[in-house]
Structure formats: C-alpha cells, structure tokens
Amino acid sequence: MIILDGKKTSADIKNEIAIEVSKLKSEGKKTPHLAAILVGTDGASMTYVGAKVKACEFVGFESTLIELPEDTSEKKLLNEIEILNIDNEIDGFIVQLPLPKHIDEQKVLMAINPDKDVDGFHPTNVGRMTLDLPSFIPATPFGIMELLERYKIETSGANVVVIGRSHIVGRPMSILMSQKRPAGNATVTIAHSRTKNLAEITKQADIIIAALGIPEFLTGNMVKEGVTIVDVGITRVDDTTKKRGYRLAGDVDFESVSKKASYITPVPGGVGPMTIAMLLKNTLISCKRGH
Ligand code: NAD
Fold first, then answer.
1. How far apart are CA 230 and CA 93, in angstroms?
2. Three-state DSSP class for residue 96
3. 224 assigned to active site
4. Which residues contact 253 (CB under 8 A, 6 or more apart)?
5. Is 52 a residue of the active site?
6. Which residues contact 182 (CB under 8 A, 6 or more apart)?
7. What is the pLDDT of residue 43?
8. pLDDT in tens, 223-273
9. Are 209 and 251 in contact (CB under 8 A)?
10. Which of 28, 255, 283, 291 has the greatest count of CB atoms below 10 A from its CB?
11. Distance from C-alpha of 229 to C-alpha of 125, rounded to nearest angstrom
C-alpha cells in the first residue's frame, strides 16, 4: 500500500510556484496577487483562510485578506466583490464559504468576475470546464487530478466511483475523470444519497473518490483488493484525548480500507493540502495570462 502524500506533493507544487514567482519578479513582471473575503468568524473558515494567506507568503505572492463582520449586508459584500473585480492589482480572489444565512451564496458567486474566479465556482468556468475549454478548475478536484497524475495512477479505462455529487467536489470530479485528459478517460459512476446498493458498486471500482462528509463511511468490506482511494472528507469528530477536543476524520475507514488498497490518501495530509496548492496555481495562471 502506497500513501498518496498530499502534504509532500503540495510542497513540491508550492516550491515550483515559488521558483516561477521569483522568475517573474526578476523579469520585472507583476507579482501574483490573491485576495480573500471572509465574512464572520467561523472557526474552520478562519483556519482555511489563514492557511491560504500563509501559503501566499511562502510562494512569494501578494495577498489581501478582507475580513467583514457576520452581519455584513449582501449589498455591502457585492460592493466589495465589485471593487476586487475591477482592481487591476488583483489576479484572483475567493469568497470563503459558507456565508452567513442572510446572504444568497449563488448571487455572490455569480458576481465574481469569471476571469478572477480562482475557485472556479462561477457558471462560466463550470461551463467551460465541462466543454473542455480552458477554465479555472475548482481547487479540490484540480488537486485530486494533480495527485493522481503525479503518482501515475492508471485512470484510462478504469472504473471510477465518485461518492457525492456536490458542486465543489463530486460533480466536477466526475466530469474531469471522464474527459480526455491526464488522469481522465475513466468510466465514471457518480453515487449519492439516493444510490441503492452502494457497496455492490464500490466493490467494482478501481478508483474511489469519497466526498460525502460522513466520517469513516467507506469500510474495507465495500472495496476490492488493489483499489485506489481518494478520501476528500474532513469532519471534526469529538475526541477528548486531543488537546483541542476533536480530531479530523475522513470519509474512509483508513484502518480497514488501507489493508486492501494499493494507493490511499490519508486524512489529514492527503487532499486538503493539495487544495491550497492548486488555488495558488490558479492564481499564477491568472496572473501570467494578464501579462
Ligand atoms: P456536500 O455536503 O455538499 O455533499 C455531500 C454529498 O454526499 C451529496 O451529494 C450527497 O448526495 C452525498 N451523500 C450523502 N450521504 C450519502 C450516502 N449515504 N451515500 C452516498 N452519497 C451520500 O459535500 P462536499 O461539500 O463535497 O464535502 C464532502 C466532504 O469533503 C466534507 O467532509 C467536506 O468537509 C470535505 N471537503 C474537503 C475539501 C478539501 O480540501 N479536502 C474540500 C471540500 C470539501
């Protein structure tokens, strides 16, 4: 069993980006600049945004964090987005999700200039991705594709089962892996909460992408020998033995599944770190396109 090491791979990618950034700087070109808008003080969101800002520093990007109070009106948020949309200094920006309930998430995502939508959530980018046109690919699926490619996992003709059909992970993964592209050309099944006899389906899979958000859902008796496992789930599970009172659990029961798998991502240290690296990559792409 080989660990698909997202921590190491993301460090490699960040080092590659850092080299490109110093080259851009030495050529007197613009330094990539990523901005993030954070509304409210949700603990997990603050951690994610903090990690993104730190990653920007590491690779030599400029970064701007716009922190807005929980009671920020939708109008005020849309106004902040418009400022970033037209600011030539900003190559890409994200609005950290989830947003407070009084704000219409869809309206907010639609307001982002697709050319700066480095999260790849805008319908224009989703449409372009679906049509095999150049686009920003959402960071988590982009990271998984990169991980599969760098570990040379054979995906062509493979039976892939994606568990979960969310717009940010499951759905784009199912599209990308079915496309004619590196880490693509697979025969993809997408499973969700209404799927019947899931274990019968997962037992046929050469590769399983688990993105449903139920801790340790996929167990050893649901997979075949030699399967490749990508565990996207991150759930905080109460754990009094930990100083912070919780541990991070994936959607895969690592203990039983790793005994049968040929490749598997750990949680933490698998898909999570890849997500941030690919957000940086999207920002670099956006910046270079502007040159
Ligand atoms: P979501 O909550 O939006 O959707 C969950 C999906 O799972 C739904 O499509 C639902 O139909 C499906 N599902 C629910 N119960 C099921 C069942 N019993 N059998 C089969 N399918 C079932 O999920 P999401 O936003 O894609 O997130 C999934 C997990 O991935 C969460 O734990 C989230 O925290 C994590 N996540 C991690 C990263 C990362 O960077 N590593 C990024 C995004 C999401």
1. 27
2. coil
3. no
4. 216, 217, 218, 219, 220
5. yes
6. 145, 149
7. 87
8. 999 999 999 999 999 999 999 999 999 999 999 999 999 999 999 999 999
9. no
10. 283
11. 27
